[in-house]
Amino acid sequence: MNAKEILGIGVKLIGVWLIVQAIGQASYTLTQFHLYLVLNMANDPSHQYIQLPAVIASLLITLAYLGFGIIFIGFSSKVTSILMPAKTEDGARFEWNEIAIGRVGLVLMGAYFLATAIPPIIQNLWLYMDISQEHMVNVISARKYLIISSTSLAQLIIGLFLIFKSNGIAKYFHKLQGSKHGL
After folding, report:
1. Do 25 and 61 form a contact (C-beta atoms < 8 A)?
2. Of 28, 51, 168, 174, whose CB neighbour count within 10 A is largest?
3. Distance separating alpha carbons of residues 58 and 64, to the nearest angstrom
């Protein structure tokens, strides 16, 4: 494989991830829209103006995820040529063994875990501090945010483990695959 082919595979994978994100964001958008309709039917003017921008922003985010996902999958060669200048050596070939490919996969999985764990931790700790300043009026909600943050913290630890111990894990999987018993 040359460098452009490898980058093309990465661009397509990012496109698939963006479409998966668009599906999740679409469910959030529908929830926001339903909440807006409920508040609109209740004739509560204090919340209607707050919810409409949230619905519009969520819809725009959903469309952006979907649009970029389709572009990255459908036009990956164009995106690759934009990202990789023409001066790059096209003749450069990469020869990877199974352990190196396993390491790359584990590091990418760890990076994904980190990217999806850090924002909820920050958001939930912020909400916990906000709720705890209300003189413990809502202790159950405060504990809920700590529990949710603890699961994200576990995901963060797993992500760091996958990144920093990827070589050992890849060698272990390679050894298991080569053993008599297999995986």
Report:
1. yes
2. 51
3. 10
Q: SS in 3 state form for the chain?
A: CEHHHHHHHHHHHHHHHHHHHHHHHHHHHHHHHHHHHHHHHCCCHHHHHHHHHHHHHHHHHHHHHHHHHHHHHHCHHHHHHHHCCCCCCCCCECCCCHHHHHHHHHHHHHHHHHHHHHHHHHHHHHHHHHHHCCCCCCHHHHHHHHHHHHHHHHHHHHHHHHHHCHHHHHHHHHHHHHCCCCC
Is the per-residue pLDDT at 48 higher than 60? Answer: no
pLDDT digits (tens, 9 = 90+) for 120-158: 777 777 767 666 665 555 555 666 767 777 888 898 999
- Judge whether 6 and 59 are in contact, CB under 8 Å: no
